[in-house]
Amino acid sequence: MTSATKNSKQSETPVWFITGCSTGFGRQIAKHVLELGYRAVVTSRDPEDVRDLAELGDALVLKLDVTDRSQAEAAVKAAEDHYGGIDVLVNNAGIGYFAAVEESDEEGVRNMFEVNVFGLSRMIHVVLPGMRKRRQGYIVNLSSIGGLRSFPALGYYNATKFAVEGLSEALWQEVEPLGIKVMLVEPSGFRTDWAGRSANQTEHQIADYANTADKNIRQLRANSGNQNGDPVRAAEAIVKAVESPNPPHRLLLGNDAYDGAISKLDELRDEFAAWEAVSRGADFPDATPAATK
C-alpha cells in the first residue's frame, strides 16, 4: 500500500470521541470501534485506566473530566488537531445517585447534574463548531429508560436523564438541517458497575420510604452484575444504529427498556384520553387547534 493510499484510507475512517471510557458502555464502545478499525479518542479522568484500549488500534488517549471546561476544550482541540475532525461524539460519562426525593442531599444532586447534564452539554458546545463547519457529524447522548419513566429512589437521576432527553430533542431539530444527527440511547439494566460503583447513596434515610425507595435501592445493589443487558451487544447496537441509513432519534436497549417504554406510552395515552374533554376545554371557546392552523 502506498503512502498516499494509506492516508486516503485513513481519511475515510470515522473518528469516534467517547467520554467516560474507563468502565461500562464507554469502554465497550471504544473497544468495539477500535476493533472495527475506526479511529477513537478514548477519554477518562485517569488516562491510565484506558491505556490498554490504545493497544487495540488507532486511539488517542486523553485526560477528560467533563465537568472541567478547560479540559473539555483542550481534549476536543487535541482530537481535531490529531485527526482533523470528530465524526461521532458519544456522551457516555455519567453517574447515579440513590435516594428518595426527600432524602436527597443537595450537594450530591448538584454534583450529578454537573456530570450528567452540564458535562454532556459542555461537550456538545465544544464539538459542534467543528461539526457545523464540516456540515456533518453525529452526537450520541447516553440517556436511560429512566429518561422516559421514573422509579423510586431515582428521582433526581431520572431528572438528569429527562433533561438530556429534552435537550437532545431540541438539538436535533436545530442541527439536522446542518447535516448533523443526534441520537438518544435508552438502556435498561446492563452489566456495568453503574449500580455498584458509579452511584452514590444518601446517608439520610427516612423510615417511611423503606418499602419504596429503600426497597428499590436494595434491589439495584443486589442485582448489580446480574442484569439482563450485555454491554458488548449494546456497543454493537449503538454503532449499527449510527451507521444505519435511517438512524433512530431514540434507541431503546434491552427488553426491559422496550417493554417499559411501551407501557409508559400506553399509560400516557389512557390518561390523556380520560381527561381529553377537560384538557381541550382549557382553551378559549373560539380557539383553533394548533394542528389545523
TrEMBL record:
Gene3D superfamilies referenced in this protein's UniProt entry, alphabetically: NAD(P)-binding Rossmann-like Domain
Q: Name one Pfam family in it.
A: adh_short
Provide a Gene Ontology MF annotation, just one. Answer: 3-oxoacyl-[acyl-carrier-protein] reductase (NADPH) activity
EC code: 1.1.1.100
Q: What class of enzyme is it?
A: oxidoreductase
Q: Write down the CDD domains for this protein, in alphabetical order.
A: 17beta-HSD-like_SDR_c (cd05374)
Which keywords annotate this record? Answer: Oxidoreductase
State the family it belongs to.
Belongs to the short-chain dehydrogenases/reductases (SDR) family.
What protein name does the entry list?
A: 3-oxoacyl-[acyl-carrier-protein] reductase FabG
What organism does this protein naturally occur in?
Novipirellula galeiformis
